[in-house]
Amino acid sequence: MSKIASPPPMRPLGSSDIQVSSLAWGMWRFEGAASDGLALINAALESGINFFDTADIYGFNGSDGFGDAESLLGTIFANNPGLREKMVLSSKGGIMPPLPYDSSDGYLISAIDASLARLKTDYLDLWMIHRPDILAHPQDIAATLRKAMDAGKIRAAGVSNFTSAQIVALQSFLDVQLVSTQPEFSPLCLTPIENGEFDLAMQYNLAVMAWSPLGGGRIANPSSTRETAVAAALDSVAQRFDVSRTAAAYSWAMAHPARPIPIIGSQNADRIAEAVRAYDIMWTRQDWYDVLVASRGENLP
């Protein structure tokens, strides 16, 4: 039976000339001492991960902490000259506590500027709108993104949690290509496969940044019948290649032809290093579909 080759460790970010690792490290739980944060960043870099994902909302606990993850990273940059240049750095904006979403020109530009100030950097390699603002016209959003690119504040733009129709609408008003989309995707969340977003990503050459690739921890610690079945299907492959179940889950996601980039959320250096074993797995179609069937809970038609 034909094999599905693993993605290369490095590849272009969508249609851009920015080279990123096929695994990313996410900072939604990035907190604590700067020295500890630096150790985690170095663990990712030493594992071959150069793609780092944060957002202005990371660190917000419902009442305060907005921008804290970015500020911590900015402190680390200030204390370690040259570190920023080793990274492809992505951030997001458009969620304004306590209001839900704001993609007006004034807010998005101010959000980008605030992120740059907190991060102590002059530019972001990638900046994404975190959630779609239903009250914003895509033509206006496109003009804002173009303005930020022309000013050199962002090298490339993308979206997060947008529907396929929202992506198409925004792209229709842009004279540059969006380079990324960021949906939830894991062996326990198949939505982008089923709603056409992955097909659109392949059509538009969008990098797919998959958040929560371990199903919010449920793949490592299954509790339901469905989760246990998915874990067993992953384990059968993980044991064959002598890797962890979580590495198998990352690899399963990466095997889709849209080539999703799983965003690793672990704040443990050993688990970050373990994640790159995902490259060691070569899936057969049977094995890959076995995980899909376990997740759907029904046989293929």
Helix content estimate:
25-40%
Q: In terms of structural class, how would the helical and strand content be classed?
A: alpha/beta
Beginning-to-end CA distance, first to last residue: 20 Å
Elements, N to C (H/E): EEEEHEHEHEHEHEHHEHHEHEH
Let me know the CATH homologous superfamily of the domain at 10-182.
NADP-dependent oxidoreductase domain
Q: Within the largest sheet, what's the order of strands? A: 4-5-6-7-8-9-10-11
> Tell me about the biggest sheet?
8 strands, parallel, barrel
Task: Please mark out the parts with pLDDT under 50 across 5 or more consecutive residues, or reply none.
Answer: none
Beta content: 15-25%
CATH class of the domain at 10-182: Alpha Beta
Q: What is the number of E strands? A: 12
The oligomeric status of these chains comes to single chain
State the CATH topology of the domain at 10-182.
TIM Barrel
Taken from the alpha-carbon principal axes, the silhouette is globular
Explain how this protein is built:
This is Aldo/keto reductase. Residues 23-288 form the NADP-dependent oxidoreductase domain. By secondary structure, the protein is α/β, with parallel strands linked by helices. It has helices at 34-46, 68-79, 105-119, 138-150, 164-172, 191-194, 197-204, 225-241, 245-254, 269-275, 285-296, and strands spanning 3-4, 10-12, 19-21, 24-26, 51-53, 88-93, 124-129, 154-160, 180-182, 207-210, 261-264, 283-284. Strands 4-5-6-7-8-9-10-11 form an eight-stranded parallel beta barrel, surrounded by four helices. Strand 7, helix 4 (138-150) and strand 8 form a beta-alpha-beta unit. Helix 2 runs parallel beside helix 3, helix 3 runs parallel beside helix 4 (138-150) and helix 8 (225-241) packs across helix 9. The radius of gyration is 19 Å and the shape is globular. The mean pLDDT is 97.
